[in-house]
Amino acid sequence: MGAQVLALFGVTSLLMWALPLWVLYAFNNQLFPGSEGLSQQSTTLWSGLLAVLSVNVVIVFYIILALREKPVAPTPHPDPAFLAKAKASLAKGQAQDQDQSQSAGSSDKTD
């Protein structure tokens, strides 16, 4: 599962780097239909805007895939030593409570 996560991270990282460069190159070399008639300023503006948009699309794609993954963490298991100490402590506390209630009951009878 870890290798798949790393592969997904690597692919999306590569896309976040390469896709905006390709958009800039394609726009500046009139590879997009309709970009031939734009002025230099408009070409720069639209190519930059589309490059930023392409990065955001890749980020959204990565987030969606990350949210769809199943968690890898196993179910938590308590420490056996801690459990044994906790059970012993509870048993000791219950025994003390019983002793106190019995001693309180016997002192009421002696009065």
TrEMBL record:
Entry-linked Pfam families: VMA21
UniProt key word Nucleotide-binding: no
UniProt subcellular location: Endoplasmic reticulum membrane; Endoplasmic reticulum-Golgi intermediate compartment membrane; Cytoplasmic vesicle, COPII-coated vesicle membrane
Bilayer topology term: Multi-pass membrane protein
Protein function: Required for the assembly of the V0 complex of the vacuolar ATPase (V-ATPase) in the endoplasmic reticulum.
Region (Disordered): 88-111
Keywords, ordered alphabetically: Cytoplasmic vesicle, Endoplasmic reticulum, Membrane, Transmembrane, Transmembrane helix
InterPro entries to which the protein is assigned, alphabetical: Vma21
Residues that span the membrane, as ranges: 5-25, 45-67
Gene Ontology process terms (BP): vacuolar proton-transporting V-type ATPase complex assembly
Recorded family membership: Belongs to the VMA21 family.
GO cellular component, one term: endoplasmic reticulum-Golgi intermediate compartment membrane
Protein name: Vacuolar ATPase assembly integral membrane protein VMA21 homolog
